[in-house]
């Protein structure tokens, strides 16, 4: 896996590097709370790509993932020029949804963590069951 797309560790966690830029910060120089959502989204996309799941291919089939629920905890502040790492791992995959645990670290220090519940939607905006092949890719089996 390239450095751009991150890498999957032996523990099964996908790791994605993120540099904090000026545009990610607020007036205080800390990362603006909504910028963490962008970091998590990019890491989720690369996590899926690392598992052979590509948004463009899914869109051609009339499918897309949607975040159904997200719980986020801001533990520490990140700052301009920080090099962060977003860790993403599968917590659970069922026929209708999957749950990812995501953690943003600065070195060994946890900055922010989130639990994300995602579902698969068809082109009419309705939730659909995850096809077996997709569940197999997500579970790594």
Please name the defining characteristics of this protein.
141 residues; alpha+beta; seven-stranded antiparallel beta sheet; 3 helices; 7 strands; globular
Task: Describe the protein.
It is a single chain. The protein has 3 helices and 7 strands; from the N terminus they run ββααβββββα. β5 and β6 form a beta hairpin. It has a single domain (7-139), classed as Hotdog Thioesterase (Thiol Ester Dehydrase, Chain A, Roll). It is of the alpha+beta class. It is 23% helix and 40% strand. Strands 1, 2, 3, 4, 5, 6 and 7 form a 7-stranded antiparallel β-sheet that branches.
Beta-strand content bin: 35-45%
Coarse shape: globular
* Contiguous uncertain segments of 5+ residues: none
Query: Could you estimate the helical fraction of the residues in percent?
Result: 10-25%
Radius of gyration: 15 Å
**Class based on secondary structure composition and strand pairing:** alpha+beta
What is the CATH architecture annotation? Roll
Q: What is the tally of helical segments?
A: 3
Mean pLDDT: 91
CATH homologous group name: Hotdog Thioesterase
Our count of domains comes out at: 1
**Secondary structure: number of strands:** 7
What is the fold-level CATH name, i.e. the topology?
Answer: Thiol Ester Dehydrase, Chain A
Major sheet description: 7 strands, antiparallel
Compute the separation of the termini in Å: 18 Å
Q: Could you give a short description of this structure?
A:
The chain is an alpha+beta fold and 141 residues long.
